[in-house]
Amino acid sequence: MLQKIYKKGFLALAVTSALGLAPLAHADVVIGVAGPHTGANASFGEQYWRGASQAAEDINAAGGLNGEKIKLVKADDACEPKQAVAVANRLVDQDKAIGVVGHFCSSSTIPASEVYDEAGIIAMTPGSTNPQVTERGLSGMFRMCGRDDQQGIVAGDYIIDVLKAQKVVILHDKDTYGQGLADATKAQLNKRGVKEVLYEGLTRGEKDFNALVTKIRGAGADVVYFGGLHPEAGPLVRQMREQGLTATFISGDGIVTDEMVTTAGGPQYVKGTLMTFGADPRKIPDGQAVIEKFRANGFEPEGYTLYAYASLQALAAGFNGAGENDPAKAAEWLKANPVATVMGKKEWDSKGDLKVSDYVMYEWDEQGKYHQK
Amino acid sequence: MDGIFLQQLINGLTLGSVYGLIAIGYTMVYGIIGMINFAHGEVYMISAYLSAIALALLAFFGLESFPLLILGTLLFTVCVTGVYGWVIERIAYKPLRNSTRLAPLISAIGMSLILQNYVQISQGARQQGIPTLLDGSFRFAIGDGFVQLTYTKVFILVAAFAGMAALTYIIQRTRLGRMCRATQQDRKMASILGINTDRVISYVFVIGAAMAALAGVLITMNYGTFDFYAGFIIGIKAFTAAVLGGIGSLPGAMLGGIILGVAEAQFSGMVNTDYKDVFSFSLLVLILIFRPQGLLGRPQVAKV
Amino acid sequence: MSSSAIDIKKSLLDAVLAGLLALIVFGPIVGVVLSGYNFNLQFDRVGWLVGAVVIGRFCLSLFLQSPRGERMLYRFETAGSGVHVLPPDHKSRLLWIVPILIVLAVIFPFFASKYLLTVVILGLIYVLLGLGLNIVVGLAGLLDLGFVAFYAIGAYGLALGYQHLGLGFWSVLPLAALMAACAGMLLGFPVLRMHGDYLAIVTLGFGEIIRLVLNNWLSFTGGPNGMSVPSPTFLGLEFGRRAKDGGVPFHEFFGIAYNPNIKFLFIYVVLFLVVMLVLYIKHRLTRMPVGRAWEALREDEIACRSMGLNHVLVKLSAFMIGASTAGLAGVFFASYQGFVNPSSFTFFESALILAIVVLGGMGSTVGVVIAAFVLTVAPELLRSFADYRVLLFGVLMVLMMIWRPRGLIRISRSGFTPRKGVAP
């Protein structure tokens, strides 16, 4: 049985790429790709970098930004605000970036965006969903994803209308993203007259939630909502099932990755788990050709890969639309015009949020894949 | 006793026995050279990767039966992690043997950064995991509630206590253990009496790493998931457990681990998960105020 | 110490053994890459690593057999200890460096780019932190692993003071130092009777408790979302492009073009002055009775107590002065970043500050200044190594510790000539 689970290993003759630094050509414009390239969230950083790299390649092949080639710079913030500020200053000052795709953690995006605003450059975050990111009146801050409050409304309505749940437990990971999401869902539930039976936070990086699960069991929950990321969601759902708790598990876009199955110890545990996420970018016909390119390179474009791709596309469209590589004009253009991206047509309002958020509910099946419900 | 309380007790015991296993590494190293080995949590993390790799390789070669699989994985992980313990000591701590007390501490912090990033670079930043090995569980009805105990947890409890018993035997009854205790009591005197203290210190690192490896296999089996960052939190908790029980004392480390685990589980069950860690650290501070040498530690006798 | 002929056979044996170990160590982790429940084999990488280790070990072994290598080994095995006492009328030959450094610091901002400026500000903040911890660990010998708590108190003091009381940068600056000192006293009283390493874990716990409370107390501290921090003002003038609350921006008042660097320039100037002040105070303190008492207590507590030194008071004073310095640093950090949240105050931060103190040389002021810059600037310099950045930082820490286990600069003190007529 195990041999079946461990698929046949193969010899990969991977040639480790040399540590050579690409020579800096003169006519290049620099775009930063800022995110957690090291640290606990480095897998999201990798998705960003893969997505943006592919986008830069494609845009450069199609003529670049007003005739100039894009040169990407990797900016690592490790999801620490201190490093985010330092790296933002470096992007602005040292690399002379005119645009940034990033950051990932909202707690990094918020302080870094102040730096970008002072320098007058444009930033598009593929994944920071905290409302505060765009609520501070910065003219050059955009996002390619929805907001936690929109996501919370979808989740809250679903819990009441479809699941008809009475006893809801809300958990979060005490981080900007997770708690924001949990609070948004809680607000929607309370607005519609459902009071949660338990509202608690767990610690990121821990793996043992047995005590919490027992407590949830004691509360007699029939729905457990979790605001957080997959490293905690996986063990949490597994320990729920191991303790014989059958309540429905719902989370947000922080668990959108195949690693969710790995962290939960197998598809039998994630089966039936629900989550809110933008309409699957991999299902949108506009992106099929791009997705094939990723797969040809042996990388499944999951999670935020296509968001990063689309973010760079949008920035490029802004600069090309403005006719010159001026961040302020590109920002104005983006707020006035729709952009056709790999994820479909996107429009932004005056705050830099997407006009239409397309959060829908997904369900994981017993094969460990997710499907739109 | 109602079902919930009993379930929390079991949760706490499994968590605590794992803390205890890792705490042994801290307490032994501290006892013998008076150094806090901050890289020890990372040693556990390495062993988690090793156990998953061993499991994958064994399953790939067609090994199916659970006892053989787990035995092979344990053997491989304990051996290789032991070598890691030895190499780390040789590179980062041995050159600092005669230097200030804090120098190895900083070197250990550097080492833990190295290990974390070495694993991240070679294995990727992904979350890793192993499939469930032992499916199924016992279920006891108690009052109107029930207690559910997976086979994996039973296995963990048994294996952890077996490991601790074996270690106690080694330290109390064998020649190696006698050398360790002698070196711990007075390093200079021990070396005068013909004990190669440098080698004993190396052995201690290997034993500590081996216990961390046992914990690594058990934790990986139980939670099924780990990443290159997993050593940090559990390292801090295990260190707390070691101090709680009295650093330098072996039974203290086990007791400290179990007390910490049970206290955490009961507190988050009855009060609040948010403040679970605040509670465990406050507990530590309180115990240390009234018993500065920890629960089972020997009081420090100041020599003039 | 015989400088016999180089034994190649021994070196070869060393190299082969090292290679075997490297194979065991790197083989599984580097060679078998897990992905999901699957794995890839990448033995070529193992080959390169093992090859590098074998060659490296061989060269090292040869080097250590040469006369120079033997001298180095000898130095390792007999590391001296204690304080180095200089002759009574010793004048440091390096005294000319101080004015040069000050001049450099003054003219630096005229040439620096904003990025460089921010890196240097961060460096100076860590100098402050290092100086503070240096009093606690280096001088008084109290191992504090939760120093970041006081730093957090300073930073959140500014954010909360602004949010709830409307206080600004200037009024919080002294207040934060005071608050941190009080916190130091509160923590200090119960724990100071503990011995060395128990103190370490209790302070570690305290640091974590402060961080967790900041993170969990949503209504008061904003939880993980953090809080925004006002920019500092200069005589009521703001540095933003647009002034908030109807004030007049600095650049409009003086009729100059808006320049986002001005805020950082201002922080740099104030920070620099504060660092100089703290340096001076610390310099004087170490020569005052209380400073002498710290060091005496570090060397031998029992002897001190039997001579009638109030050890609690002495330790407490070290704790409080150290804490207040960290509080000051926190205020600067908060206004430099414009935003505070609990993830800036993790245990790793405490470890970094401790590394600064140990690396600089316990008790040595100049060493701490140098180490603070090395440890804050190094990760920025290493950015061009991308993924290998933190790995190299760790290697740097270990190597520096092995190279200079007593820190970059050994603490030394000028001696006194005994007066005539007094028995030596």
TrEMBL record, chain A:
Record flagged with keyword Signal: yes
Keyword presence, Oxidoreductase: no
Pfam families: Peripla_BP_6
Superkingdom of origin: Bacteria
Signal sequence interval, chain numbering: 1-27
Gene3D superfamilies in UniProt: 3.40.50.2300
Annotated keywords: Amino-acid transport, Signal, Transport
One GO BP annotation of this record: amino acid transport
InterPro entries (UniProt xref): Leu-bd, Leu_Ile_Val-bd, Peripla_BP_I
Residue ranges of every copy of the Leucine-binding protein domain listed in the record: 29-369
PANTHER family per the UniProt record, alphabetical: AMINO ACID BINDING PROTEIN, LEU/ILE/VAL-BINDING ABC TRANSPORTER SUBUNIT
Family assignment from sequence similarity: Belongs to the leucine-binding protein family.
Protein name: Branched-chain amino acid transport system substrate-binding protein
UniProtKB/TrEMBL annotation, chain B:
Entry membrane topology: Multi-pass membrane protein
Domain of life of the native organism: Bacteria
GO cellular component terms attached to this protein's record: plasma membrane
CDD domains: TM_PBP1_LivH_like
Keywords: Amino-acid transport, Cell inner membrane, Cell membrane, Membrane, Transmembrane, Transmembrane helix, Transport
GO biological process: D-alanine transmembrane transport; L-alanine transport; L-isoleucine import across plasma membrane
Coiled coil region boundaries: none
Record localization: Cell inner membrane
GO molecular function, one term: L-leucine transmembrane transporter activity
A Pfam family: BPD_transp_2
Claim: Membrane is one of the keywords in the record: yes
TM helices/strands, residue ranges: 12-36, 43-63, 69-88, 154-171, 200-222, 254-272, 278-296
Family affiliation: Belongs to the binding-protein-dependent transport system permease family. LivHM subfamily.
Listed name of the protein: Amino acid/amide ABC transporter membrane protein 1, HAAT family
Automatic annotation (TrEMBL), chain C:
UniProt domain High-affinity branched-chain amino acid transport system permease LivHM N-terminal: residue ranges: 10-108
Compartment(s) of residence: Cell inner membrane
Source superkingdom: Bacteria
Entry GO CC: plasma membrane
GO molecular function, one term: branched-chain amino acid transmembrane transporter activity
TM region positions: 12-34, 46-64, 94-111, 117-137, 142-162, 168-191, 262-281, 316-339, 351-378, 385-403
Keywords from the UniProt entry: Cell membrane, Membrane, Transmembrane, Transmembrane helix
Membrane topology: Multi-pass membrane protein
PANTHER family: HIGH-AFFINITY BRANCHED-CHAIN AMINO ACID TRANSPORT SYSTEM PERMEASE (PTHR30482), HIGH-AFFINITY BRANCHED-CHAIN AMINO ACID TRANSPORT SYSTEM PERMEASE PROTEIN LIVM (PTHR30482:SF20)
NCBIfam families assigned: PRK11301.1
Name assigned to this protein: Branched-chain amino acid transport system permease protein
Organism of this sequence: Pseudomonas indica
